[in-house]
Amino acid sequence: MVKRTIAVGRNRDGRLEVFYIGKDAMLRHNWQRGPNGLWATEEVLPWQAVHVAVGVNADGRLEVFWISPEGELWHDWQREAGGAWVGAAPIFVEGEAKGVCKARAQSACVVSSPDGAIEIFYIDERGVLQHDRQVEPNGDWRGARAISKPEQGACIAVDAGRNQDGTLEVFYALGDGTLMHDWEIVPGGPWNGPEPMGGRAIEIRTGTNADGRLEVFFRDPIGLLWHDWQTTPSGGWHGLECLGARARRIDVAQNRDGRLEVFYIDMENRVRNLWQAAPNGDWGTDEEILGEHATDLAVGQNEDGRLELFYWGPGDEVWHNWQPRPGQGPWNPIVRYDVDSFG
Q1: Per-residue pLDDT tens digits for 287-314
Q2: Fewer CB atoms inside 10 A, N or C side of the chain?
Q3: Measuring CA to CA, how many Å separate 130 from each of 56, 286, 293?
Q4: Is the pTM higher than 0.85?
């Protein structure tokens, strides 16, 4: 089960904010002092965590979700966009109205619905994929609904995206690695029911092409990196293709011009990237190394469109690297994220 220890959000004013789990298991965060600029002083949130994800409310307030060492799913949110934090609260299985049974999770991902309500998919302690959402944008939580069926077997990985027509689509892997997906029939409505996509996955990430087509990326049990993509927005799928790389961890981001870019930690623990040569197009790469001795990574996009990479690197510290210009390389020298440098 992949545990994500870094997550990146963007404040309403364009400032990136990075959340990560420190060596002491405490949840920490730091943020740019101004859009595209220098970084503030790290702060502790202060809760212990083993997995972290972040979403953005309809009114621009960041909301961070984490799984405690005991397996409970918690969240915290800004009082106002870009401002101070309220304080930790658990997610409840039956929703906030009842607030009885705390949700338990192994991993989670966050996506927003067309109206701006945050939705979370999480694999519970039994391996069942659960779905919860805000009852209304910026509001309370409804309560969990199961997406997978126990008879399918335990889930081991999950990620989700939003189709051009507003329907959510979730991708998940079963215990034997079988890659599955399910999608809403109409935005906010009932789900189609799970269908296999082919291939075997142990980690999944989802991107959106410039024309609105979802593209799913995953690594298989021996680390090979694969992808599949919709042939039309909100439509059917092309079929699996291998990207010709082996990876320990993966993430994906969209450049300002719409080209997808995949970041991965290779088998020598170096951070590398693959990118579309043109929006919606074929893939290319070079020999550039964006980081070394890496164990986990996450990518965000600055207000000016430049992608910025964060990863656990040498000395068990968070490092970062960034594009000098939107969609262009070579990338800047690698530095720790708390060093006074632009990014």
Answers
A1: 899 999 999 999 999 999 999 999 999 9
A2: N
A3: 20, 39, 34
A4: yes
